[in-house]
Automatic annotation (TrEMBL), chain A:
This is Cytochrome P450. It comes from the Bacteria. It holds the Pfam family p450. SUPFAM superfamilies: Cytochrome P450. CDD domains: Cyp158A-like (cd11031). Keywords: Heme, Iron, Metal-binding, Monooxygenase, Oxidoreductase. Belongs to the cytochrome P450 family. The keyword Glycoprotein does not apply. The keyword Metal-binding applies. It comes from Rhizocola hellebori.
UniProtKB/TrEMBL annotation, chain B:
Gene3D superfamilies: 3.30.70.20. The lineage of its organism: Bacteria, Bacillati, Actinomycetota, Actinomycetes, Micromonosporales. It comes from the Bacteria. It holds the Pfam family Fer4_13. It comes from Rhizocola hellebori. This is Ferredoxin.
Amino acid sequence: MTQQDSATAVEFPIPPAPTLYHPAPQLAQLRAHQPVAKVTLDDGTTGYLVTRYADVRQVLIDPRFSRAAANAMGPGGAQTGVSMLAEDSMISLDPPEHTRLRRLVAGAFTARRVEQLRPKVRALVDELLAEVTARPHPVDLVEHFSLPLPVRVICELLGVPPQDQHIFHAWSDTVMSDASRDPDEIRSTIVKLGEYFGKLIADKRATPADDLMTALIAARDEGDRLTEKELLNLCFGLLIAGHETTANQINMFLLTLMSFPEEYQRLAASPELVPQAVEELMRFVQLGDSSSNGLPRITTEAVELSGVTIPAGSVVLTSALAANRDESVFSDPDRLDLSREVAQHLSFGAGAHHCLGAQLARMELQEALSGLLRHLPGLQIAVPDSQLRFKSGMILRSLETLPVTWQHEA
Amino acid sequence: MWKLTVSSACIGSGVCAGTAPAHFAIGPDGRSRPLASPVEPDDIVLGAAVNCPMEAIAVTDADTGTPIDPPP
Ligand code: HEM
Ligand code: SF4
């Protein structure tokens, strides 16, 4: 809590957590004793890791913590697919430039517009799960449910033809990989994605349709409100941002529920808890590992946080995983309580960059969870945790497969 | 001049406060409120209103009451 404390050397990146269900204990230590901890980044420079709820929220909302400056400096050392893709997109701009791009698409992602999509998403959930129940046990939910659901939803919204959707899986994996992946491979994948969307944009210019891509093309051609490159980046940015995250959130929801069987039973008995349960699961689950932090910010002037003065020009990292377990905001934070009246969790971020797809992801997660309770009663994961295979070198926990069984109805 | 209001639909995302910090801030209840109203017309206020995921921000003409965003 004092300048002195923050000078104590911190092991960084934070070592991996011993379980899938809780953050590494080091994060709780930092939250208590060094809430704004000095850390040494990959490239040898000094950064600050922020772990308290109020501080994380402030960093994300306060304009003195700049994404554009962080992007320009390319801090944190190694490049990942996400950092490369982010270079030219709204996540790397500050208001008002950021605002200009985001307002072009915000209307399609409001709670009201998302609610209008709910019946379609519910029908899609029913369709996918009817196919699942027709298969012999065990069934891989990644292949047959958690990945196709968000891919089909975002492709439908953008107007990407269904027959092309399968080609994104490999591309998206490459883009979502961590610094261990060959940067040239990532770059060439981003080029391929660009070529694909370039062609699709040309098609839609020739034959407009009732979809988000057509609306964005009109904003470019008629309103001149974005450049051709921005148009391209928006399209594939939306595709990538929404799909691996939501798919693996569904997987992590299920793994977490299975490891807290009383809570799962409670939810199965009271499906009306689903909306609250989704918020609590969003707060609780460890979608990324404890070593991963959100995209960096850089201070545009000196800022004091929890008694520590962060000098101007410093890299600031936030741990939403730590903030979501802050006992000053969430009582008994390490307990999963699906009927908790939650304060806003930070899993969708906050501030100007608060997840554009948050309402859509919420709705998809609610429908996915309701559908799983409806169609697959008595759901069980067919392998022990020790046999779960996560794709290696990804920035979030991404399951290769999730084999499940359930009770057939009589 | 523009009159700014934030409705109870606000979920405290902080989009408005991050976008137009001179006009909106998150209060102790975790919800947004306008820092002043009425204010001089400024495009960034409309940006914040359009980007609000809950459509909780209303901008109206302070004299006539005519809606500016969401548009009538
Ligand atoms: C459960 C699923 C999801 C999670 C956990 C998630 C999480 C996040 C987080 C934490 C941020 C803020 C990053 C930062 O400030 O550094 C963000 C931004 C963003 N998300 Fe999501 N997201 C999810 C689903 C989606 C979906 C479905 C879309 C689809 C459109 C989407 C599109 C975006 C975009 C475009 C941004 C950048 C917004 C901006 O810079 O203004 N996300 N997301
Ligand atoms: S953008 Fe909307 S929901 Fe978010 S804090 Fe502002 S008023 Fe509330």
